[in-house]
Each structure stands twice: as C-alpha cells, then as structure tokens.
Amino acid sequence: MTRVEVAIIGAGFAGIGMAMALRRAGREDFVVLERAASVGGTWRDNTYPGVACDVPSHLYGFAAYPNPSWSGTYAKGAEIHAYLQHVVDAEDLGDRLRLRTPMRWAQWDAEHEVWRIGIGASGASSWPAAPGADGRHTGSADGGSADGLPGEDVLLADVLVLACGRLTEPTIPRVAGLETFPGPMFHSARWDHSAELAGARVAVVGTGASAVQIVPELARTASHVTLFQRTPAWIVPRDGSEYSDADRAGFTADPASLEALRAELYAEGEARFASRAGDSDAAAEAEAVARAHLERQVRDPELRAALTPDYAFGCKRVLLSDDFYPAVASDAVSLVTTALSSVEGSTLVAADGSRHEADALVLATGFASTRQPYAELITGEAGTTLAQHWSGGMTAYASTVVAGFPGLFVLNGPNASLGHSSSVLMIEEQAGYVARVLDARGGRVLRVDPAAEQAYTDEIARAAASTRWMTGGCRNWYVDERSGRLTLLWPGTVDAFRARLARADGSEFLPEPAPLTR
C-alpha cells in the first residue's frame, strides 16, 4: 500500500487548483487521482457543438496563470481543456497525477486515523455512473473491505480532498419507452461524434445552458430540430467578440493590462450579484434587458409568450445567447412547450399529446447536482456515508469541511458555487483555506465540530432566504427538494466568501482528546 499526506480526487479546475495551493504551501506529499484519460473535468467531458463558457474568459482561469491567448470574450470548451493541460504542465504535476485511476470507495480507518481509498485497477476509467447504478461500490459493510476487492489497490491518505465537480454525472430523464428509440440517443455531456446528424431530424430535450448553445448549431445542419421545453429560461445578450491577433499580442506584451481587465471583469461580476440576491431595482433592470432581448429577436407574439418565463429573473440560471432565439424563431426549429412524456420508437410524445418524429435524440437534461454521486462512496467515522450525512441536503462548515468525516475537504461542493461570477474564484479561496488548515494542524486529526457545521448551515439559510433562488417562484437545481434549502450556491459575493473563510480561526475543529494517564 502507498501512503500520502493528501489524496485529491479529480483533475478538473478544483483538483488542479488544490494541487497548486499545496505546492505553494510547501507540501509535496500529495497525489491527484483522475478516473479519465486526461485532466479537464467538465471541459474534457463536454464536447458538444458550440460548447463554450458563459463567464468571461479572462476571469475564468487561475489568478497565477493569466492567458493572453484566449480567442475571445468567452472561451470555447476545447480552449479551456487545453488551458488546464497547460497549467498541469507548467506546474510540473505529471508525477503527482494518476490518470485512469478512479476512486471506488473511501473509508475512514479510526484505529489508524487514516483514509483508506480503493482505487480502480489499471485501465479503469470511471466510478459508477450514479447512485443506485449497477456495480456501485459504496465502501460500506456490504460493499468492500479495508483491504480492497480483487483488481483494486488501496491508497492510504491522512487527508482526503474531494474535487469531483458538481456537473459530472448526467441526469437521464425517466421517460416511458425511452429505450425503444431506434436512432442515436445521448446526453449532451456524452456527445456521440459518430452520429450523423447533418440532414437528420434531431430532437433536443431541455432548454438550459447546454441546449441554448447546441440548438443553433444543430439548426444549421439538421433537416429539422424539435425542441422540448419544460420551462423557458431568462436569456440576456452574450455580446461577446473575438480577440484579434493584435489584442492577444497586446495582452502578452503588457501583463498589467490583462490584470486590469481581470479586475474589471471581477467588479462587474460582483455587481451582478444584486440582481440575483433580491434587490428589486437591480432585478427589474436586468429583467428589462432580457425582455428587450427577446422582443428584438422574436417577432411572433405567440412564440415570444411561450419563451417568456413566469418566474422571477434570477430564480433559475440566467443564460447568455445571441443566436438561440433566432434559431427557435426560424423554420429550422419547432418549439414544443411541454416536456417529453413518452417514446414510441421514433415517435416522441409530448405531455400535451403532440407527436413528433425524430431520427436522433439529444438529452440536454442537466446533471446530478444536489445529490452528488461520489457521496455514496465515502464512509466516515461512525460508518455513515457522506450521502447519508447529506440526506437532507449538502452541508459543510466553510462550504468545505464536514462533521463526522475527519480530514475530509470538499471543493466546489455545498454552497460553494456562484450564480453571478466565476466558480474558479471560489475554488481558489477554498484551496487556500485547505492549505491554511493543514499548515495549522500540527499533525493532529481534524474533526469538525457538528455545532460549527450547523451554525454555518443556519447562517447560509438566513442569507439565502431573501434571494431569488428561494423566493422567485421556480424549481431550480440550486435548491435541494428534500429540505428546501439552498445547497449548491453561495448566497453572497466572492468578497463575502473570502472574508467568511478568513474568519475561520480553527475553532471549527474539535480539540483532540487528552491522552490517557495512569
């Protein structure tokens, strides 16, 4: 068995950011486990037509690695994947990175005060697809043992960092007869590039962030696109532009200009929080922009009404697009304003009873966000899985550490995402917090005080109560339906998160028991 101080699970932005923070803190005894064949996380997995970030490129990157070569205001998916590969090379993380090495389970060994992590056999590429999937190994009493299963190795770690992401496991809708569809059918995050969609009748289920990028691309080449919309989204202009060679050369020659641009984009993002947080004036102004955008691009009043949300601006994720509305308004796309109800071979039946023929089916139906699949695999101090601890919704002190799970840190997990700016900013703050905590621990086992976690959870609930995510009259993927709590987003600005983590003084951890005396 190999033992390390820190095991990091995942090599997307969070895992790479954590590795960088450890290295800057002088900690070299760590390993990064990645189930796939390359780094990149979301930006490795999502390769659908038109995939791009909806956060300005010069804000969507590590502060230590500004990229003067971004192609435009909003980076394309392949660019971001390449950027992360570049950072790994620049940080010389190759010898710390173990690709094609999934975490199968992780158990806290109380006797030896260490995490035992079952890792897949060589060549394995993924952990189980989702909770309840065939072959899931939870690491509980009926799953595996501390010595692993045949074909598995066991890694020992003093500290376990889950950097697994929140948009990793696609959600497949439960639709009667879905398995009878005879043509190509796949989730947007598992795009089948071998499927011949040019000249085909393509159906898309969903109108979220991925769909608004996919539909315009398909409309250009498919014979027809049928779009199933359960709920319309608020969409604002993207207003992006491509950077010229001169722009990129200027960024390279003058790093200060790049730093100033990042600061400007940061300030714009922080200001944007008001329209999501319950500020009625800011929300009304932003909604007016979205309504004007829709009116300019969709002339048909009936179609425009079908594309107008009936919930408050900001309640769901606000989308950016300049070409989605024109595509939907064109003859190339038919909008179905109800959910997909059933499938009868190549016939798709909507909830309103309408029937639609399709040759291919794209499921742009989102991800398991509030119920993270990795939580089933983690067993803590009392034999409780992280999924059980989170049965009423994800919780963590400082959005990072969890009671009952010694030496466990979660990045980009409970209340650590943003609805108004770059998630990379939050990841960097969390990674910095982890590094500070490890510097101060002095070799002791870090056990979170349950009272501290509860107090932080209550603090989040109070801050979230007046936000549009809670009061806007919609069903969103930020709120856990089991508890009705906002569990995915941080209900504040990045500045506020930074200040909150800075106030963490170590009192969130229980003191170690005094040694026994004779």
UniProtKB/TrEMBL annotation:
Signal peptide: which range, if any? none
Task: Provide the residue span(s) of the region labelled Disordered.
Answer: 126-146
Q: Which residues cross the membrane?
A: none
Gene3D superfamilies xref list: FAD/NAD(P)-binding domain
Q: Does the keyword Flavoprotein apply?
A: yes
Q: Which SUPFAM superfamilies match?
A: FAD/NAD(P)-binding domain (SSF51905)
Which controlled-vocabulary keywords does the entry list? Answer: FAD, Flavoprotein, Oxidoreductase
Which family does the entry's similarity section mention? Belongs to the FAD-binding monooxygenase family.
Can you say what this protein is called? NAD(P)/FAD-dependent oxidoreductase
Q: What is the lineage of its organism?
A: Bacteria, Bacillati, Actinomycetota, Actinomycetes, Micrococcales
